[in-house]
Amino acid sequence: MALTDTLSTADGPDSGFNSAVSLLQLVRSMRSTDFRVAEDYQSIWQTANRINWNIQDLIGGDKRLNFTQPFLPDALVGINTIQCLNNEEKLKLNQIRGNSYLSLFGLCEEFILPSVVEHINQIRWNNLYATQAFLHFAEEESKHILLFQRFAEDFEQGFGTVCECIGPTHTICDRILNHHPLAVALTTLHIEWMTQRHYLESVRDNQGLDPQFCRLLRYHWLEEAQHAKLDALMVQDIARSLSPEEIKGAIADYFTIVDLLDQGLQQQVQLDLESLSRATNRWFSDVERTEIQTIQIQSYRWTFLWSGMTHQNVGRIFNEIYPSSETLLLEKAKNFG
Question: Rounded to whole angstroms, what are the CA distances from 150 to 101, 121, 141, 154?
């Protein structure tokens, strides 16, 4: 029953009372009567508002990248074991990886944003706290896209040579968004918890990295910490309306997206190698190219696939929506670890 239908049935001297009773019955029948979930959404939204930051506070003016320092820890880029590169070339490759790291995050934000907006359309006014929280989620994702675009401009000016990244972004995003909404939400869950793992385990308090790059990662992480909680709720909400077979199919669809991302990462390795050749003015032999490619493919897979798929909170949500599905997840992750 629509709210307008409820109000239009009122008639006679007791119409106000009857309308109020009908409205109360309607509200009680809504799915948003799960007050615990409503409180979760409200708490997340309130925390997100306290964390809120502006792009101009992080980049531009005297807030510049330091190209004498690495941007990312070796745990995320796997460069130190490459024998054919000297220290200067390794630093260049580290910074190229820093550029592609944020570019890939920007790409992910661009398919996450429309999926969140679509979820808001599904919620509508059924849960105003959820709508409020997801609107803020979408706003922050669009802010992150703009932040990474600003970073790309600063990087291009300071690095000195062109570094290409996979694309076109809209084509890749469309391919991902063509999959089941639950599969897209699971991919987002994977990315959000992957972000937490990267920052907490290897970036935070790392004094050997460029402070400006770390600052960008820190403020991105602060907001993504709230997004990870929201995405878990979104996954649960979508799954609640599906049959077990539909959920099983969506999980298979998520694995298809993972394979699609893996293809993109392998393409990025080739682009990074070309960028390194330009930056160092060096031609690499077939043996050298094979060494770099092999190590870098393994690194990209660990960083963007394995570290998300094996996060305990991702596995927990998988099991919640489909019992024992974490086993399938970890089995798939073995291909990338």
Answer: 14, 30, 14, 6
Give the chain as a 3 state SS string. Answer: CCHHHHHHCCCCCCHHHHHHHHHHHHHHHCHHHCHHHHHHHHHHHHHHHHHCCCHHHCCECCECCCCCCCCCCHHHHCCCCCCCCCHHHHHHHHHHHHHHHHHHHHHHHHHHHHHHHHHHHHHCCCCHHHHHHHHHHHHHHHHHHHHHHHHHHHHHHHHCCCCCCCCCHHHHHHHHHCCCHHHHHHHHHHHHHHHHHHHHHHHCCCCCCCHHHHHHHHHHHHHHHHHHHHHHHHHHHHHHCCCHHHHHHHHHHHHHHHHHHHHHHHHHHHHHHHHHHHHHCCCCCHHHHHHHHHHHHHHHHHHHHHHHHCCHHHHHHHHHHCCCHHHHHHHHHCCCC
Instruction: Kindly give the parts of the chain with pLDDT less than 50.
Output: 1-35
- Show me where the domains of the chain are located: 1-33, 34-333
Determine if the pTM surpasses 0.90: no
Model pLDDT for residues 229-238, shown as the tens digit of each residue:
999 999 999 9
Mean pLDDT of the chain: 88
Structure confidence by residue, pLDDT tens digits, 30-50: 343 344 555 688 888 888 778
**CA nearest neighbour of 183 among 297, 41, 322:** 322
What burial class does residue 274 get, using C-beta atoms within 10 Å of its C-beta: 0-12 exposed, 13-18 middle, 19+ buried?
Answer: middle
Fold classified for 34-333: Ribonucleotide Reductase, subunit A (1.10.620)
Residue 192 corresponds to which tokens in the numbers above?
């959000």
